[in-house]
Amino acid sequence: MRITSKIIVTAFGLSLLPMICSELAFAQTSPRSAIPSASQKVSPDCAASDLDTTYQFTNQLTTERVIVTFRNISGHSCIFHPGDGVTFGGNGHNIWTKECRNCEPDGTPKIVGQLEVATGASAQLFVTWKTQADVGGEACQEGGTLNGNAWSIWSVSLLGNVCSVVLVDSYLPEAVDEQKQNLRSQTVPNERLVTITLTASGETVYSLDSFWLHLTLEDRKGELELKENSCPLLFVRTRGSDGSTSLQEESGFCHLTPLGQQPGRSIRLDLATLGWGALGTPVDHSVQVFALLGSPDAQQVEMVTSNTLNLRTLDPATIPRTWGPESKGLAISLFLDKGTYLLGENIPLRMAVKNVSADATIASGELPCFAGITFEVRDPNGRDVAHADTMPCTGHGWLMTYLKGKVFPVTGLTLQAFGLLPEQPGKYTVVATWNAMSDKANRPGSASGYYSEFGATLTPYAIVHSQPVAFEVVSQPQLVPAP
Q1: Cβ atoms within 10 A of the Cβ of 387, count?
Q2: DSSP code of 49?
């Protein structure tokens, strides 16, 4: 039995914002409470890793509010100090906004003391602003991102323009809302007419390398509003074990499938290249996907959430590798995330090259496209799988040298990109080959192994092969509608 929860966002009173004076261009920080005596037990300040951060969104006429809730998931009480601010961004850069932190309606500082939060309890930060300009008021600036201390929101759909002084209230105890608690306690599975199943291409993310999240949404009454490419409005929430949390709006190409004899539809989406950005930091992560129900401008913004995945991100330069046979002091490592893949599922190639002992200046164009690396996939009968000659790619014209003793991860390569993805179920093997070159000019490279020179004279040095890696491709299972 699958049960998903909905986020029901409760609208709060938003009458304070029109009373804020536009002359407030500086942060107002409330004084902290008195220092406790030496006999009192003092809780530590709340660290990002102590907290689980979630977001809610409300709208009322031309006023928008984001409520950020920090739940203490540590084993001890911790303290929040008032006066934190936020930054906004738009079009890929920060924008300058005026804010008033912990302000009374007339713009004077409000007395807010430090807040001690027990294990399992929560504190909240409120960010409130106007999305349409008043006559003679602040000019509107295009929003889209909102950043705080170890948390961020990236969504042009959920974050409107900033057209006023921004009110930031921190930190307050979590408001007790009986209706919200009742909604959280509902366990009737038939009420969940939209469900999201989240899987991944593996349990390990390699930083800056290929990775996919696979989403299947069952929309039994067609509640989701579909945007471009047949996708609903989707958001990925990631939390690192260091406490850093991100909510990011995502898009892609969705595939619609009827739910057999039952009404409704199944929506499938593969989100790629998530080894970048929020998932690129080498820590453990938890990942959820949210789908919007209704409008992002509704008074109560409502979402449905997926299951949670726990993933580990590793630095490709530090992972253990199995090297193939050396050729003139060079070697290749190649492995796959798993041994079995679904038909049509892309297969990332986890690869690295190493100059083990060669004294020559081993050089090439940029990785991964211009280094003479090719792959061969064979079926159980030893026949090559048909493939394209080249992988589409662009570069900067850099020349790269492979310093002795250094491992060079080759990231972003997949069988699909090379036209090598098997089209039939079966058992296969893949081998990587490096047509290594040397630079006869013997020019020293920089510490990173790069130098920006054109027209180098490269001559063949060695042909290097990886160990063959076996994998199996199996047929896609039939989708079974939820009961």
Answers
A1: 16
A2: G
Do 169 and 20 belong together in one domain? yes
- Is the peptide bond between 325 and the residue preceding it cis, with omega within 30 degrees of 0? no
Neighbours of 358 (CB within 10 A): 19
Residues 142/143/148/154 CA torsion (nearest 10 deg): -140
Is a pLDDT exceeding 70 seen at residue 36?
A: no
Mean of all residue pLDDT scores within the chain = 81
Q: Which carries the bigger pLDDT value, residue 3 or residue 48?
A: 48
For residue 37, being part of any structural domain is answered with no
Are residues 80 and 61 both part of a single domain? yes
Domain-embedded: residue 71: yes
What confidence tier does 316 reach under pLDDT thresholds 50, 70, 90?
A: confident
Q: How do 309-314 and 204-206 pair as beta strands?
A: parallel
Q: Are 230 and 255 in contact (CB under 8 A)?
A: yes
Q: Give the whole-angstrom CA distance, residue 386 versus residue 378.
A: 9
CB-CB neighbours of 467 under 10 Å: 15
Tell me which residue range forms the domain holding 307: 188-314
> Do 152 and 21 fall within a single domain?
yes
At 395-423, the pLDDT tens digits run 566 778 899 998 999 988 889 888 899 99
Q: Is pLDDT at 481 greater than 60 in this prediction?
A: no
- Tokens 């295009």, located at residue: 142
CA 469 to chain centre: 30
Band (pLDDT 50/70/90 cuts) for residue 7 is very low
Q: Which residues contact 405 (CB under 8 A, 6 or more apart)?
A: 354, 355, 356
Average pLDDT over residues 93-105: 87
**What tens digit of pLDDT does each residue of 140-149 get?**
999 899 999 9
Contacts of 92 (CB under 8 A, 6+ apart): none
| Averaged pLDDT, 172-182 | 60
From residue 98, how far is each of 58, 82, 129, 301, 466 by CA, in Å? 21, 18, 10, 26, 58
Between CA 202 and CA 104 the distance in angstroms is: 50
- Whether a cis peptide bond, with omega within 30° of 0, leads into 402 is no
